[in-house]
Write a structure and sequence with these properties.
The chain is mostly helical and 490 residues long. Helices cover 65% and strands 1% of the residues. The protein is built from 19 helices and two strands. A two-stranded antiparallel ribbon has the order 1-2. Helix 1 packs parallel to helix 10 and helix 5 packs antiparallel against helix 15. The longest helix has 37 residues.
Length: 490
C-alpha cells in the first residue's frame, strides 16, 4: 500500500474475526430485537419466515458478489470505486455520495436512540446529554485507530450474538415446556388465519422490514482496504456471517411465532422507547427472568452504539474514497500517521453533529432523518449488483479465465440479477399507500433519497459527459486514482 508523500497510509490491521463480527454486528440490531415482531403480525408466522428467507438469500447473493470483487480488488470504500471502474464514473460519484449521506444522517438517529434508551434507567436526565456522550465516544474510537474500531465492534457484536443464542435456547425450552409452564408447541402456526396472513401483498410488505434488518452486511466491503489478509478474510467472513445471520433471524422469528400468536398486540411495537414490549423481553419474562427489560435495554444500547460506531467508520471511509477518486476535495483523502483519514472523519463528524442539532430546532427532525435515509441502503445494494454483473463480463471480455479468481460469487449471473430485481421491487413498493392516496408530502419524505441519487448521477454525467465504459476498456487494475494495492503488502 502506498500513499502520497508527507502523510500516513491506510493500515491493514483488521483481522478475520473483526470482519466477521463487523458484518454480523451490523445486521443484528433493533430490526431483530424490536421490529421483527411486526413482520409476524403483518404476514403471519409462515409469511414472515418466507419473506426473511427470500431476503436473506438475496443478501447472500449480494455479499458473494461483493466478496468476488473485494477479494480481487480490496479497496477502501469498495463498491463506490467498483461502480466507477466497472460501470460509469457518474454511477460511482452518485453511489459514493449517496452512501456517505446515508450514514452521515443515520449517526445522529442512532445516538438519539441511545439517549432515549438511557432514559429507561434515568428518566429525569435529558436524553440529549447521553446522546452527546455517545457521539463523542464513537468519534474517539474512530479517531484512535482502525484497530480500536475493529475491537470495539467485535465486543459489541459479541454481546448481541450471545443475547440471541440465549434467547433461542430459552425460546426452545418454552416451546417444549421445559420453562414457562405448559409446552406451547406449534399451535400458533395454525391459529386463526396462520401460517399465512394477508397473502402475497403482506409478504411483499414484510420484504421492506426484512431488507432494513439486513442492511449493514455490506460494511465488510467498506473494510476491504484495511483487512490484513483480504483474499482470505473477506470470503471467510462473508460465508460464515451469512449463515449465522440467516440462522439467527429465521430461528428467532420461528421461536417468537411459536410463543406469541400473530394477533398479539405486543408484536406491533417498533419503538425503542417501549423495550418492555419487545418480543425478546416478553419471552425472557415468560421464562421467569424478572430483570428481562433491563437486560434487553442494555443490549439495545449496545446495538445503537454499535450502529453509530459503524456508521461513522463507513461514512469516513466512503468520503476518503470519494476524495481518492477525485469526487470530493482532495484533502479528505489525507491519512494521518495512525492510518486514519482524519479530515474525512472530522468532516463527517461536523455534518452528523449539525444533523443531530436540528432536533433542537425541528422536533420532528428525528423522524425526518430516519425516513430520508431509508432507501439509501437499497440503492447501494443495487449498485453492488450492477457492478458485479459488469465486472464479471469485463473480466471474461478481456481474456481472463474465471477460475483465476480467488473467490467466486454464487450462481452468476442469476445472483446479481435476482438481487437487482428484488431491490427494485422493494424500492418501488416502499410506500404504495402514499401513492394510492396521492399523499405527496409522505411520498417526498419516503423517496427523498431516490431523487437525490438521480440528481447526483445526472449532474456528474452531464457535466463530465461520461458514458458506460465498454467492457474491453474497463480498468481491472487493483488501484484507485490515489491508492495502489500490492498483494505482497499482506
Amino acid at each position: 500500500m502506498t500513499a502520497d508523500s508527507g502523510q500516513g497510509q491506510i493500515k491493514r490491521t483488521l483481522k478475520t474475526r473483526h470482519l466477521a463480527m463487523i458484518a454480523l454486528g451490523g445486521t443484528i440490531g433493533t430490526g431483530l430485537f424490536i421490529t421483527s415482531g411486526s413482520a409476524i403480525s403483518t404476514a403471519g408466522p409462515g409469511g414472515a419466515l418466507v419473506a426473511y428467507a427470500i431476503m436473506g438469500i438475496m443478501v447472500y447473493f449480494l455479499m458473494t458478489s461483493l466478496g468476488e470483487m473485494s477479494t480481487y480488488m480490496p479497496l477502501t470504500g469498495s463498491f463506490s470505486a467498483f461502480s466507477s471502474k466497472f460501470v460509469d464514473p457518474a454511477l460511482g460519484f452518485a453511489m459514493g455520495w449517496n452512501y456517505w449521506f446515508n450514514w452521515a444522517i443515520t449517526i445522529p438517529v442512532d445516538v438519539t436512540s441511545a439517549g432515549i434508551v438511557m432514559n429507561f434507567w434515568l428518566p429525569h436526565v435529558p436524553s440529549w446529554i447521553f446522546s452527546t456522550i455517545v457521539l463523542v465516544l464513537v468519534f474517539l474510537i474512530n479517531y484512535l485507530s482502525v484497530r480500536s474500531y475493529g475491537e470495539t465492534e467485535y465486543w459489541l457484536a459479541l454481546i448481541k450474538v450471545i443475547t440471541v443464542i440465549v434467547f433461542l435456547i430459552v425460546g426452545v425450552a418454552i416451546i417444549l415446556g421445559i420453562m414457562g409452564g405448559q409446552p406451547v408447541g406449534f399451535s400458533n402456526f395454525h391459529y386463526k388465519k396462520a401460517p399465512f396472513v394477508g397473502g402475497i401483498p403482506a409478504i411483499i410488505s414484510v420484504f421492506l422490514v426484512a431488507g432494513f434488518s439486513f442492511q449493514g452486511t455490506e460494511l465488510v466491503g467498506i473494510t476491504a482496504g484495511e483487512a490484513a489478509t483480504p483474499e482470505k478474510s473477506i470470503s471467510k467472513a462473508i460465508h460464515s456471517t451469512f449463515w449465522r445471520i440467516l440462522l439467527f433471524y429465521i430461528f428467532a422469528i420461528f421461536v417468537i411465532a411459536c410463543v406469541l400468536p400473530y394477533t398479539d398486540k405486543n408484536l406491533l411495537n417498533s419503538d425503542v422507547t417501549n423495550i418492555t414490549m419487545s418480543p425478546f423481553t416478553i419471552i425472557f419474562k415468560r421464562a421467569g427472568l424478572a430483570v428481562a427489560a433491563s437486560i434487553m435495554n442494555a443490549v439495545i444500547l449496545t446495538a445503537v452504539v454499535s450502529a453509530a460506531n459503524s456508521g461513522l467508520y463507513a461514512s469516513t471511509r466512503m468520503l476518503y474514497s470519494q476524495a481518492r477518486e477525485g469526487y470530493a476535495w482532495r484533502f479528505f483523502g489525507y491519512v494521518n500517521r495512525r492510518g486514519i483519514p482524519i479530515y474525512a472523519l472530522i468532516g463527517t463528524m461536523i455534518v452528523s453533529t449539525l444533523a443531530f442539532a436540528t432536533q433542537f430546532i425541528v422536533p420532528q427532525a428525528y423522524l425526518y432523518l430516519t425516513d430520508a435515509s431509508g432507501l439509501c441502503g437499497f440503492i447501494a445494494w443495487l449498485g453492488i449488483a450492477i457492478s458485479h454483473y459488469r465486472f464479471r463480463r469485463a473480466y471474461v471480455a478481456q481474456d481472463h479465465v474465471v477460475s483465476e479468481l480467488k473467490y467466486h460469487a454464487t450462481l452468476y449471473p442469476f445472483g446479481p440479477i435476482f438481487a437487482f430485481v428484488l431491490c427494485t421491487i422493494v424500492i418501488c413498493g416502499q410506500n404504495i399507500e402514499a401513492f394510492a392516496k396521492l399523499d405527496w408530502s409522505n411520498i417526498l419524505i419516503t423517496y427523498m433519497s431516490v431523487p437525490l441519487f438521480l440528481v447526483l448521477f445526472f449532474y456528474y454525467k452531464i457535466r463530465y459527459k461520461t458514458h458506460i465504459i465498454p467492457l474491453k476498456k474497463v480498468d481491472l487494475s487493483r488501484r484507485t486514482k490515489g491508492e495502489k494495492y500490492d498483494p505482497e503488502d499482506n
